[in-house]
Amino acid sequence: MAKVDSLALENFRGIARCELHGLAPINLFIGRNNSGKSSVVEALARGLAYVVPQGQDVRGRTISGVWEQERGEPASHGDLVRAGAASAAVSLAGLVAANLRILRHGDSVRLEPHPRQSPDTFGFGEYLPGLDARDAQVEKMLWPRLLATREDRALADHLTTLFGTTVESLQLFDGDLMVVGKEQGLRLRVHGSGVRAALRMLMTVAAVRDGVMVIEELEAFQHPRSLEQLTAIVTRAQAERPVQFFVTTHSLECVRAFARAAVEVASGDESKSPLAVWYLSPDAAGVIEPRRLTASMVLGLDELGTDVRCLDEMR
Amino acid sequence: MKRLVTICEGPTDRAILEALRGAGRLPADLEIKEPKDGISGAAPATATHLEAGVSAVVLCDLDEHPTFEAAASSFIEKVLDGSSLRTSPTQTSTPLGARTLRVELRGTNGTVSLVVAIAGLPHDDSMREYRLQRFTMDDHLLRAVRKEDAYDAWYKPEKSSGVSHALVMKKLVELRDLYEENGIPITTAKSYLAHLRATVRAYVAAPTFAQQFTSRALRSGCLDDSFDALIDALNLAVAELAKG
Fold this sequence. Notes:
The complex is a heterodimer of chains A (315) and B (244).
Chain A: E1 4-12, E2 15-21, E3 26-30, H1 37-51, H2 63-71, H3 77-80, E4 88-94, E5 98-102, E6 124-129, H4 137-148, H5 151-163, E7 167-173, E8 176-181, E9 185-187, H6 193-207, E10 211-216, H7 224-240, E11 243-248, H8 252-266, E12 275-279, E13 287-288, E14 291-293, H9 295-303
Parallel strand pairs in A: 2-13, 3-11, 3-12, 6-10, 10-11
Antiparallel strand pairs in A: 1-2, 1-4, 4-5, 7-8, 8-9, 12-14
Helix pairs in contact in A: 4-6, 5-6, 5-7, 6-7, 7-8, 8-9
Chain B: E1 4-8, H1 11-22, E2 30-33, H2 39-51, E3 56-61, H3 68-80, E4 86-87, E5 94-95, E6 100-107, E7 110-119, H4 137-145, H5 148-155, H6 165-181, H7 189-199, H8 206-219, H9 228-243
Parallel strand pairs in B: 1-2, 1-3, 3-7
Antiparallel strand pairs in B: 4-6, 5-6, 6-7
Helix pairs in contact in B: 1-8, 2-3, 4-7, 5-8, 6-7
């Protein structure tokens, strides 16, 4: 199974130093704005890109292509290396090992693939920012593949579960995905952001068969109830295939829902829980000593009304 | 402003602490938590916070322990039992004042502090007549109720022609004797306070009574020193944790 066990960053973007040991099948990153959540997942993706230089995500994008698309321009040295530092470093360990040193972006890397693992078998699955709910390219690129494996049926069922309206089928007509109910069919693009975001996310989750999937702000556009179902579906998907998830969130409902889903999947055995919640809080020098919370810790804190997103406000 | 987590054993303790905090006798940033499972939930709830890297102050009852230190140590053992937290081999628990114990614990999310403060008035001469055998937060409340103007500050808003303080205090002692003669001695302040509420027909739950009594007595400036030992212990704990 594809698995990154640990990730270490040095002078990467705004982070002076950060080490995450004991990465889980599902990793949820929480913390204030500018606490380093997005930098950590970008470092992970860029590290994997050097392990699999020709690797593409499920939409056929290279890693640098993904970030270029996200930012609207190629990353510069200044974008990736902390101000005042000469270089940045990213180290991954697990079934795939890599030590990436960014001296000047794109021109000096050192690769050390793990001897037991062919780099070809480990791919970068997908980077999915919340705003992809507006990107109709998702269904255009993924639908034929999903139809071939009859994922369309499961996706229709998921939509019914998420939104309480019976969806009988999903069909692609002239590049438009139709959501077909009992009495009418509606093009996905005329649905609200919640339905579009959920379906496009689930299509992407269904298309990623192995590797790593990064989802930024999974809660985007979701009501807490649909969010709960969505996290349960993602958690079950992880249990069924070798995909490691890295998810950032600002939503307490999202953290709670993942914790509940993880406890359910683990059937009460903490050691089988697929979830680690990482609380990031950099000090003034940009050093992050992440706190690793288990699902039961999250639920225990939540039960007492302690907001896990604000642990640095506690002494 | 950083907040400090304070975990107490039940709703009455919480009500009193909130009233004291509201009157400025405890720090405003004291975040008071009450476990759903009451006393049995206090140790796991404390362990969860400590494991998440959050230091905590816990208010426990002395109950039947022989000393404050024994009660605090017993609670610390319960926190360690079943958690991944460990004491440093070179570190022992440190007494802070008479009824407070501090210990440093190591967990997966770093070193954290636990301060345990103990409630109860086992050595108070004015409480001897009640022949208490288990000592809890309610001891402090019962002691405060013994002061007439504090009782009046609470009771008069409820009943303009109610049971006088002298009468209710007398009835409590008579009830003690009556129960004892029948082989069911009253041994806790909680029971005395329940009888007090019944005697004056104040049909409110124990935490509501605790909150109403404490805040009204505080507002009227009639609360005596019954809670002072506890307030000092908690303020000392907060000051210690603020030092890091």
